[in-house]
Design brief:
The protein has 317 residues and is of the alpha+beta class. It has 3 domains: 67 residues; 118 residues, 2-Layer Sandwich (Alpha-Beta Plaits), CATH 3.30.70.60; 77 residues, Roll (SH3 type barrels), CATH 2.30.30.830. It is built from 4 helices and 13 strands. The strands form 3 sheets. Strands 1, 2, 3, 4 and 5 form a 5-stranded antiparallel beta sheet that branches. The protein has a 5-stranded antiparallel beta sheet with strand order 9-10-11-12-13, with no helix packed on it. Strands 6-7-8 form a 3-stranded antiparallel beta sheet, with no helix packed on it. Strand 2 and strand 3 form a beta hairpin.
Length: 317
């Protein structure tokens, strides 16, 4: 075999090997993708099954609770005892009971039986509120499907008509007595709180607004007038001249607003308006005064308040 034939055979072999590797890789990729899909589907099915199981357990627990809240299994016992309970609660709320009679509900099922009652009573609005509070705080499986309040005696008395339904749940173990549990249905803690809020404004009586309270007269102290600022004569006191007797200089300060003139030497006190201090020295054209703000230099012709401060502290500090 020539070299050319050997090279051709090698190239063909490489092509076959590449094709075979590509085919194997595609088959492996497809298998891996299929396996991953099956794994995801299995995990999804498991989650769905676990969710359905949790729902079933919740339904079982709810059914168990309903059976504990149910009326007695015997319909005759349930009708008698629940009617007696209604009458007792109505009377406890100071409502006068005219009649509590059975009424058909039309709601029957293999899982439960609904017992209906029609209540005819009368009393005050506060009594109705107290009865409703007791009714809804009881955890029995009952509800009020109809309520009518008709005002009597100018709205101070009410005629109350109620339609009530209560359930006997299939499979209950209760043979006698009613559930005495307390339901968490109401927002306020006591019946008195509802009576206070509802009976305070009787909707069956014409509303009479309360008289508006008389406005209170509050005597406020008059503000003290702002005191006028003290007139500062120093703003009109000017160094008008400096004279000498041959030994020392003397400064002449004229207070124009007072028509006065001061003759100041070294050591003299100065007390003009808000300008206070002691003369430190007198020069030919300058007066130095030691004040609380420091040593002030006043030139001839200047006002005391226009003087230049030489030091920030008094000379004796």
């Amino acid at each position: 075999m020539s070299d050319r034939e050997k090279m051709l055979a090698t190239v063909v072999g490489l092509l076959i090997a590449l094709w075979g590797g590509n085919w194997a890789w595609k088959n492996y990729s497809q298998w891996q993708q299929s396996a991953t899909t099956k794994q995801i589907n299995a995990a999804t099915d498991l989650q769905s099954a676990q969710f359905e199981l949790s729902k079933a357990r919740a339904a079982v627990n709810k059914l168990r609770a309903w059976r504990e809240q149910s009326l007695p299994a015997s319909v005759a016992v349930a009708q008698s005892q629940y009617r007696a309970w209604l009458v007792e609660q109505l009377q406890a709320a100071d409502l006068e009971v005219a009649d509590v009679s059975p009424r058909p509900t039309g709601q029957q099922s293999p899982a439960y039986r609904a017992l209906g009652y029609e209540v005819d009573a009368s009393g005050k609005l506060a009594g109705v509120v107290e009865f409703l509070d007791t009714f809804y705080r009881s955890d029995q499986l009952h509800k009020i499907s109809f309520l009518r309040l008709a005002p009597q005696n100018d709205g101070n008395e009410l005629r109350v008509t109620l339609n009530v339904e209560a359930l006997v749940v299939g499979g209950t173990d209760r043979t006698d007595g009613l559930s005495d549990g307390v339901a968490d249905r109401l927002n306020l803690d006591t019946a008195e709180q509802y009576v206070e809020r509802i009976s305070k404004r009787n909707p069956f009586v014409a509303y009479t607004p309360r008289p508006a309270p008389k406005p209170k007269v509050v005597e406020r102290p008059r503000p003290k007038p702002t005191p006028k600022p003290e007139f500062n004569h120093a703003e009109h006191a000017r160094l008008t001249g400096v004279v000498s007797d041959g030994e020392e200089f003397q400064a002449w300060v004229t207070i124009q607003t007072l028509g006065e003139r001061l003759y100041l030497r070294t050591g003299d006190d100065v007390d003009i308006g808000r300008f206070k201090g002691t003369v430190v020295d007198v020069f030919e054209k300058e007066l130095l005064v030691d004040t609380d703000e420091g040593v002030i230099s006043v030139r001839v012709g200047e006002k005391l308040t226009d003087g230049k401060r030489l030091t920030s502290t008094p000379a004796g500090s």
